[in-house]
């Protein structure tokens, strides 16, 4: 449960509303001047888990960089070390992604993440360019956190026109596992409106969460926690045929929870009337070779629990298609798109010919080709 | 009255051109009175008028050396049926009655009064000194004191009968003075004999009273308000007081004098006026929390009719909770805080309401765009008491309903109301009872599923008792309450209601001992019993998984004993020295953690968990010193200095920039130490142009200890171990305030410049990884500040007011880098308050029209038309960044970014 301070965005919006009513100006763009920007802060994200562990290593970029929001680090050596000196090295999969499989985590052992990167020493001032040096980053050794099972994943819809909300329900197993972080992957099937031979009818699409999803059971009855994962508009195509959500649950420490909720606060609530003043918390990853280096991220060791939910479109979908998916005669189409007089007539590019046996009929391409809304790549384990 | 003049048989003797009333030496043995009169007329410039009855039939025996001639007459007439009156240099002697030598003060105003009673007009029925030329006899003429006599009394306003605080009574030779207290009461020691006292006060014309002092006695003085009320506008301070008073850093304002200062919605606002004073800052334009000389917003003690106010604003800071029609005056102590106040380390803002008209029924009504108010006042118990009641409400819901539906906020609403009521009853000359009550309620929501409300409640009863001529006392008991609630039903599984409350019951006993003219001693005790409910949470939906939970209530007793002496060593040197010893006892039952002392408290450094039953949990105590000194360089210049130390046992814990209505308050306990502060001040005060222009330079240096700052990412609501989310920081503030004030003339107002800094030092372990420097500027650290408040009287009916405010932009924490986590962009922020928002400038203007001044008119209108932010400058309230379509954009939020016109109309009846 999250107890929030005053809902900030709302507050300043209402000020603006009050303001606009009397024609006040409210929000204008702001270009910061004379800010010594910072770049190349190491950002490490991921979990060391009992299945596939993914660690992503990137660097921050300066605010004024409009090309990208981060740079990937692919030349690092990333490995997990156990307190009995056992080592698992991760393989780099490009895009800054490093993966490794440890197998079952030994609850009696402690694990840590180590990263070695060759980078310029930020302390050097006189020499340009700074000589490269191997820097070592690591977390403290810690015991794996055993994540409780997901009790259920369910959805709710309060009535016609109301959104579909998907919730996850779990239970803190003890005082140590009261804090959770979730990530999810959505898959959904999309069908074209008409099946026409030669055009794709079955498609799928996929998405992952971008929000940092956090939950805390420290204020709830018996440590039970039900948290909303996502809210989907009932007319969203995601729900049109079949929708699936796969949720991964990781119990995290209180420090990690505070760290990520602070990042969320910094991103969401800044700048308005009752906004908390932004601040940065200490990462659990430290640079051993240069302790003054800043690192962003919080990587912990623990097991992962999984949950899955299918939602059939029949139960929830409220179509709001605005496309005119009729098959229309050439005559009608010519009436709609007359073209230039005196030149040969061609149907508009958004239409395709569906019959041509003397009587030409057309339909919107979108209505028969599902790749407008998805891909033909079938998700893993998608039901027949 | 005047007919007495005609029935006089004018007896003129010699005419002597004299220039002063020199003392005379006279010895007569059973001689006719005429001989005495001739003698006096010869050796002074008095002329004596009397009936032959006096001059011929009476004989006199007198033997005096170096005596005031009037005293001789007084002695001569002693034990006869005759009295004398003085008009200019003319002495009239008539039988059994003194002569009224001046029109009564109420002559112009209470014409209807005199009709109802043809015996005597009011001023004579009530023994109040109204006349400037009449000689008032003090004490028993049979007991002619040779040492100084004590004169006490009350100064009241002739129009409303209400007491007038802060009036100076001054004797020029030897220079002696006193000031009326909050009840208009004064006590002064004067040499016996003929004296003339000068009376000066805020918004009052200088006035005199002629006295003949025999022995200790009483004189209630009624001050005549001028007929043309506009001429009193914006006389902001007692012009003599600023030089003579011992304390610097004191701002005293009368509500009726500040109504012309332009404000946002055209409503005179106490808190906003306070913010226009030098040395007072706020973090943002709409914030109602204010910072005095580098102090935090929770370090100001706001006293409203003796009760403590925790949430001084309505509607997120747009309005202050003080109804401008009810408020009489306010005093802001910025540095030299009298020993009788304590409990906050930065300042004391004392706001008092009016007592209510003691002479007739009156009312004020006001209708505005957002609020309406109504105030009624009337005498009670045949003028022995009075009451005043007032209410204010808003109807701003309509505004939010106008908002387009798709914005999602058309379901929002915000509203407030407040109610004031107070009454007083004068049992006799020495005993008065006062009752006062206040209630305010605010609610707001921006969606039907997320609602907030908060309220203030204050009640108090006061007994003021004059023990004798030297000692006055007051006893107050009261109760203060502040609470807020939040109900969120947005997500039914996490739906909750949350509430928080502060309750405090207080008692105060205060004694003022006018020891002699050189010493005024103030002694008293204060006690506050706190009962804090730091939080209750319960599910607000049947599906909610929220655990019903209450944080442990916090009980504590804060007690203080104080004694102070204001000592006028000689006419040049004056000292005020006080000590306040405060003690804070936190009581159980409570379960609490004991932390390792090596580290900042955190959940991982808990050594053990202890608990106490109903008994004592922890005691904090310590002395507070209040010392100030004044030296008069010449009659227009003085220098003042002071050292003040303060302690504070209740702390606001907030991680937001401005005071928010859902801020949590916390009492000191085992893990939260009291805040302490010391302020050193030196100031030079000088008046120019017959005291019409006041100037001052004041400097201060202040240190603060154990001020609670939150740690990064702190969770402050419903936290049972809040000490792990905060840390005591040190603070340092210094500054210089230059002030130029003009009190009289067509143009009046003030201009001030302030240079000040406020720096905080974070606890070692709290330094964020980015923070390389120890000290960082506080949120309201705005080094340069220029403020101008002015009013120009075009005629008596029309006036123009202008208000300007410039300051350096406040510090802000800005992002300096960006990064991605799970494909989403995030910003990395600089160390706290490393940057500044653009400088702030705002100019407001208003035009005020007072309706005609015909006194017989039943109603009296007051019309103001104004523009807030005349130049339309888009002042940054804050800078924030959002991610839009993969791009990070910076925005500047301005609260009032264009000129905002307003109109307000008040009717007095």
Low-confidence region ranges of chain A: 1-17, 19-25
User: What is the radius of gyration of chain A computed over CA atoms, rounded to a whole number of angstroms?
Assistant: 27 Å
The number of distinct β-strands of chain A equals 24
The percent range for helix content of chain B is under 10%
Secondary-structure class of chain A: mainly beta
> Main β-sheet of chain B: number of strands, strand sense, barrel status?
22 strands, antiparallel, barrel
- Helicity level of chain A: 10-25%
Indicate the low-confidence ranges of chain B by residue numbers: 1-20, 102-126, 227-239, 767-772
Distance between the termini of chain A: 37 Å
Helix tally of chain A equals 5
Q: Determine the number of helices of chain B (DSSP H or I, runs of at least 4 residues).
A: 9
Strand content of chain B: over 45%
Query: Do you know the CATH topology of the domain at 407-802 in chain B?
Result: Maltoporin, Chain A
Largest sheet of chain A: 7 strands, mixed
- Identify the overall geometry of chain B: elongated
- The name of the CATH architecture of the domain at 407-802 in chain B is Beta Barrel
- Overall residue-averaged pLDDT value of chain A: 83
Class per helix and strand makeup of chain B? mainly beta
For the record, give the distance between the C-alpha atoms at the N and C termini of chain B, rounded to a whole number: 31 Å
Rg from alpha-carbon coordinates of chain B: 31 Å
Secondary-structure blueprint:
The complex is a heterodimer of chains A (384) and B (909).
Chain A: H1 8-21, E1 27-29, E2 42-48, E3 52-60, E4 70-72, E5 77-82, E6 87-89, E7 91-92, E8 97-101, E9 111-120, E10 132-138, E11 150-157, E12 164-171, E13 179-191, E14 202-208, E15 213-216, E16 224-232, E17 242-252, H2 254-268, E18 286-287, E19 295-296, E20 300-301, E21 304-312, H3 313-316, E22 328-329, H4 330-336, E23 351-355, E24 361-364, H5 365-368
Parallel strand pairs in A: 2-19, 2-20
Antiparallel strand pairs in A: 2-3, 3-4, 3-8, 5-6, 5-9, 7-8, 9-10, 10-18, 11-12, 12-16, 13-14, 13-15, 13-17, 17-21, 22-24, 23-24
Chain B: H1 3-7, E1 24-32, H2 33-43, E2 47-50, H3 52-57, E3 59-67, H4 69-77, E4 82-87, E5 90-95, H5 111-116, H6 122-125, E6 128-129, E7 135-138, E8 149-157, E9 168-171, E10 176-179, E11 185-190, E12 193-200, E13 207-213, E14 217-218, E15 220-223, H7 241-244, E16 250-254, H8 270-275, E17 280-281, E18 291-292, E19 300-304, E20 307-308, E21 313-314, E22 319-320, E23 327-333, E24 347-353, E25 362-367, E26 371-380, E27 385-394, H9 397-401, E28 413-428, E29 431-447, E30 450-466, E31 471-488, E32 496-516, E33 519-539, E34 549-550, E35 554-568, E36 573-587, E37 590-595, E38 606-612, E39 616-634, E40 637-648, E41 650-653, E42 664-667, E43 675-688, E44 693-710, E45 726-742, E46 747-761, E47 775-777, E48 784-793, E49 798-807, E50 811-812, E51 815-821, E52 824-829, E53 835-836, E54 840-850, E55 860-868, E56 878-884, E57 887-893, E58 900-908
Parallel strand pairs in B: 2-5, 6-15, 7-13, 8-14, 8-15, 19-24
Antiparallel strand pairs in B: 1-3, 4-5, 8-11, 9-10, 9-12, 12-13, 16-23, 17-18, 19-20, 21-22, 23-24, 25-26, 25-58, 26-27, 27-28, 28-29, 29-30, 30-31, 31-32, 32-33, 33-34, 33-35, 35-36, 36-39, 37-38, 39-40, 40-43, 41-42, 43-44, 44-45, 45-46, 46-47, 46-48, 48-49, 49-54, 50-53, 51-52, 54-55, 55-58, 56-57
